[in-house]
Design brief:
The protein is of the alpha/beta class. 30% of the residues lie in helices and 17% in strands. The longest helix is centred in the last third of the chain and has 13 residues. The radius of gyration is 17 Å and the shape is globular.
Length: 240
């Protein structure tokens, strides 16, 4: 069993807490963990060989779609310290130029860079936080499947057949985009493999059923802004 965790993005979600340069997956949650460490250790404990997709050392802020402007940022969020931290949690997969694409593009690239001798492949976003027991609950569903928390926020559980289906479907979306609006806009995100209803329906028709999360029973957060970062810290504080 292999797991891929996407962790190559940067949006500056830590800027209101004095951490504008830290990629979201590496922002501290107040208990010594990060969303990346929680995801990686959780998957490791469930028997997965964890692979983490990251940007190259020194990959610049300017390569990402701008979220805000700060004059005092260093040259890159991707320091040796950050990469060493990720490398302590799993096998690193270096993704070339992830700043002008999206997580699905990273997933596709990473799927071509892992060992081929797997029977189950679990795909997770490293900036997503689940309350205790959430990951175990998702993994315990019948494979293969897509487990969706909300549109465009899914975990994928592939066998070889559905992995091939996903890669074939994604051919229409892979590549670099000049602007975020071009990448996301005009309803395009609804057609991504986890976009609802068009994308999830397309995957279902091709053989990948969808499990819907039992929200709001399972608390979760997607850390991509100062507000959602604060929300993630709150979940950790009260997750007993």
């Amino acid at each position: 069993m292999i797991a891929i965790i996407t962790a190559a993005g940067w949006k500056g979600a830590g800027r209101e807490r004095g951490l504008p340069e830290v990629p979201e997956c590496f922002l501290p949650l107040g208990d010594g963990t990060t969303t990346l460490s929680r995801m990686a250790t959780g998957l490791s404990s469930l028997g997965f060989s964890v692979h983490i997709a990251v940007a190259p050392l020194g990959y610049p802020f300017s390569a990402y779609w701008p979220k805000f402007i700060l004059d005092d940022l260093p040259e890159s969020p991707w320091t040796q310290e950050i990469l060493d931290y990720a490398g302590g949690l799993g096998t690193l997969i270096e993704i070339e130029n992830p700043g002008r694409s999206g997580s699905h593009d990273t997933i596709c690239k990473a799927m071509g860079m892992i060992p081929d001798n797997w029977g189950r492949l679990f795909i997770a976003r490293g900036d997503m936080l689940l309350q205790k027991g959430g990951l175990q609950k998702i993994v315990s569903h019948k494979w293969p499947a897509q487990h969706q928390l909300c549109p465009n926020h899914s975990f994928f559980m592939f066998d070889k057949k559905t992995a091939t289906i996903y890669l074939e479907y994604m051919k229409q979306f892979t590549g670099e985009w000049s602007t975020r609006d071009e990448w996301w806009g005009n309803g395009k995100h609804q057609y991504w493999p986890d976009g609802h209803p068009q994308g999830t329906q397309a995957m279902k028709e091709r053989g990948l059923p969808v499990h819907w999360s039992d929200n709001p029973v399972m608390k979760w957060a997607d850390v991509d802004s100062p507000a959602t970062y604060t929300n993630a810290i709150g979940i950790v504080e009260h997750d007993v």
